[in-house]
Amino acid sequence: MKHRVTSGTLSRESSALFLTGAIAQMLGLHPPWSPLIGENLGDSHFRSLHPPAWEKRNVLAASLFTTTMRDRAKNRKPTQRGRYLSTEAIQAVQALKRASGVGSNDRCSLERVLAAKVRRLIKGDMVAVLRELQSQGEGLLALEVFEEVRKEHWYKPQLSLYNDMIRVLASCSLTEKVEHVLSYLKMEHLDADTEGFNLLLRTLLDFGYIQPAMECFRLMKLWESEPDLSTYVILINGLKAKEEIDLSNLVRQEAEQHFGESLEFLEQNEETVLTDPDLNAYKRTT
């Protein structure tokens, strides 16, 4: 005796086939008659074991609704010059700030964070942490990471790294720390880098570090980073702006000896001299 199949009597296989048929019918892949509705339960079991070709198409249609999850870790952009922070770098920054929070003067807490969160970082992440702390004006914390960077086997001294560190410390009025970093610089062995020294000279003069600027000028020549037009313009104008007229005149005299009597470049706007390659290619006149 035939009877209609209800949801209470459908087997697990029949329920799956019924759902597949319904989806296929919505897609227009279903024949005009339903294989399960109004037919014998035994017949439906036989079809589940030996499905006709149209049911195979229904299974294919149902597979169109399969959802695949993508690994969200692939969405994160790679670290580029410290701009994008990895999860580990973010955790390191947060942990450092918590360790140095208000009322937290425990050096042991900071040391634990450095050991657990900073020293284990790869090169790109450690540099990213340093730049992030510098951008946030966290001078003391940035100095802690800077000192960790100097201990790494991959560390290569660069004037740009020193310039950024000195700038953030000077902006926080940490004069003693600026002098501390400059003492590191004097012990380094750097390649000739006139442009790097020019940036450092400008930073020091901007914050009123006159004597350190003159020491860096001497260090520049000692390391065979030959001063160019930009160097003298920065020093002469920077010293004059800080009312160090005598020092400015001494540097001007040196420039006259180095470049000859023609000093028209001193009348140029400073930004023009710094960016004009023709002016920086200027040689001693005869």
UniProtKB/TrEMBL annotation:
GO terms for MF: RNA binding
Species whose genome carries this gene: Canna indica
PANTHER family for the chain: OS04G0475500 PROTEIN (PTHR47594:SF4), PPR CONTAINING PLANT-LIKE PROTEIN (PTHR47594)
Record's protein name: Pentatricopeptide repeat-containing protein
Keywords, ordered alphabetically: Repeat
Pfam families membership: PPR_2
GO terms (BP aspect): chloroplast organization; Group II intron splicing
